[in-house]
Amino acid sequence: xxxxxxxxxxxxxxxxxxxxxxxxxxxxxxxxxxxxxxxxxxxxxxxxxxxxxxxxxxxxxxxxxxxxxxxxxxxxxxxxxxxxxxxxxxxxxxxxxxxxxxxxxxxxxxxxxxxxxxxxxxxxxxxxxxxxxxxxxxxxxxxxxxxxxxxxxxxxxxxxxxxxxxxxxxxxxxxxxxxxxxxxxxxxxxxxxxxxxxxxxxxxxxxxxxxxxxxxxxxxxxxxxxxxxxxxxxxxxxxx
Length: 240
Ligand code: C2E
Ligand code: CA
Ligand code: CA
Description:
It contains twelve helices and eleven strands. By secondary structure, it is α/β, with parallel strands linked by helices. It has an eight-stranded mixed β-barrel. The mean pLDDT is 91. Ligand C2E is lined by residues 4, 20-21, 32-34, 37, 50, 53, 75, 77, 137-138, 161, 195-197, 214-216, 221.
């Protein structure tokens, strides 16, 4: 697992990390998840890979500095989300790592919950009562239903990079984005902008009132061993 910092856009402090899977293949080198996750999703292999991600990420995060509430987000695919064993897998990962549930956030996409909305709501409700966070991933790529955002009550909303990139975003996108961020704000849902690559992206997302962000401007995903270094950058003395 690699970890990409999530930054508070107001202070530039690292406040969390997204856990992203890579496959270290003996011949092909690092294989990106876009290549193997869709294949794993065609079978129950994704359930095992997902359990691995949860175990690794919770163990890693339990070793990060405990003074502040640095969280870890873990991607959960559609098939994994509808697996009845998911809640137990999460409980085991939290139990074995000792990570406080409030420091774990599960990233799910709208489409993962649309398969069976009633069941998805129950699972989300169950996880939220345990203190686990829910982030709605890739917002802006699917239906992006506003009523869904209200009903699902995620803790975080991840705005897809296609909305962040000015090359693709027009005036209408700005209006939509502004409305979404304002609605999320009113619902006390934290907004995270994905794919911040340039100072212009950062400035725009700040102006739109987005609270957090991640992207190559700050850092790509790094191996677990580099996380402490990223966190040290938060300390004022290292900035000085
Ligand atoms: P995602 O959840 O949308 O993750 C964000 C992707 O954007 C990551 O690609 C990340 O490295 C990349 N990224 C970060 N900053 C920037 C930026 O500034 N510009 C651009 N262009 N890209 C940026 P990655 O790691 O290749 O992951 C691809 C997808 O694979 C993820 O998309 C997620 O859907 C899936 N994935 C990754 N790890 C896992 C996992 O453990 N479980 C599951 N189910 N899916 C995973
Ligand atoms: Ca994600
Ligand atoms: Ca995403």
